[in-house]
Design a protein that fits this description.
Elements: E1 2-8, H1 14-27, E2 32-38, H2 49-62, E3 69-79, H3 82-94, E4 99-104, H4 112-117, E5 120-123, H5 131-149
Length: 157
C-alpha cells in the first residue's frame, strides 16, 4: 500500500520543511509515502470562499485515482489517539487497497464535491493550526503509528 498526502500550498518555513523531510525519510522504512503539494491558487482576492474551495477541489480530485481511498483531514472529522490511529492504518493495510490518500485542504476547507468523494474524515485536534504545521504533525503521527505497529520504542504508553 502507498500512503499519499495531498496539501494545498507550499511550506515556506525552512525549519518546518526540514522536520517534514526528516519524518518523510523515516517513514520510508515502513511504507511507500508520497507528498504532493498543489500550488496556491493565484488571484484569490478576486474569488469568494466558495469559488476558492471549488478551484482547490478540482485540483485535489484531479490528483486521485479511481481506486484511491480518500480521507480528509478536517476539523469535524473523527479524533483518534496515536494507538487508535495506528490500528486505523493497519485496518486499511489489511483491506488490500493500493493507495490511501489523506488531504489537507485550503484555508476554507473542502468543496462539496471533495466531501462527496471522501471515504472518511479525521481531525488531528479541535484546535486550529496552520496548514504548514498540520503537514508536520500529520507526517509525525504517521511515523508514530508505524513505530507503534512495529512495537518500536518511539511511542511511550
Amino acid at each position: 500500500m502507498t500512503i499519499k498526502l495531498i496539501a494545498i500550498g507550499k511550506t515556506d518555513n525552512k525549519d518546518l520543511q526540514t522536520l517534514i523531510e526528516d519524518y518523510t525519510k523515516r517513514l520510508g522504512f515502513y511504507i511507500k509515502f508520497l507528498a504532493e503539494i498543489i500550488p496556491d491558487i493565484k488571484n484569490v482576492k478576486n474569488l469568494s470562499e466558495d469559488q476558492q474551495k471549488q478551484k482547490e477541489g478540482e485540483l485535489i480530485l484531479n490528483k486521485l485515482n479511481a481506486t484511491d481511498v480518500l480521507i480528509l483531514l478536517d476539523e469535524n472529522g473523527k479524533q483518534l489517539d496515536s494507538v487508535n490511529f495506528s490500528e486505523y492504518l493497519q485496518k486499511h493495510m489489511n483491506s488490500g487497497i493500493k493507495q490511501l490518500v489523506f488531504v489537507i485542504g485550503g484555508p476554507y476547507g473542502f468543496s462539496e464535491e471533495v466531501y462527496k468523494k471522501a471515504n472518511g474524515k479525521l481531525s488531528l485536534s479541535r484546535m486550529t493550526f496552520s496548514h504548514q504545521m498540520i503537514r508536520l504533525f500529520f507526517i509525525e503521527q504517521l511515523y508514530r503509528g508505524f513505530t507503534i505497529l512495529k512495537n518500536e520504542p518511539y511511542h511511550h504508553r
